[in-house]
Amino acid sequence: MSERKKFAPPAIQEFAPKFAEVTDTVLFGDIWERPGLSPRDRSLVTVTALAALYRADQLSFHLGKALENGVTKDELVEAITHLAFYAGWPNAMTAMTQLKEIVEKSDRSA
């Protein structure tokens, strides 16, 4: 039996092991694996929800995950631009700034 990937940060795994377990098994092991949406579409939904709600701490991780799941930089830029008019300019500016940093970091390490 292979070990399941851990998504909860190590500090949370140590501090709140049950919370980390639920994050890994329920959120990412069940909800993210449901067949109704592709991982790509789930990423796009998640990024827009986090940006709209100004959840910047979680947004950075999910922007990177969205890129891994096949959402392009241009699609994310367009989604965030569109979102600015519905969720507020500061929320979109924060999301766009984080996306820019992630893309630039990825470009430097490539």
Describe the structure.
This protein has 110 residues and is mainly α. It is globular. The longest helix is centred in the last third of the chain and has 21 residues, at 89-109. It has helices at 10-15, 17-27, 39-52, 56-68, 73-87, 89-109.
SSE blueprint and pairings:
Blueprint: H1 10-15, H2 17-27, H3 39-52, H4 56-68, H5 73-87, H6 89-109
Approximate shape: globular
What's the total count of β strands? 0
End-to-end Cα distance: 34 Å
Total of helices: 6
Please identify the structural class as seen in this structure.
Answer: mainly alpha
- Rounded mean pLDDT score: 95
Into which percent range does the helicity of residues fall? over 70%
Low-confidence stretches: none
Output the radius of gyration. 15 Å
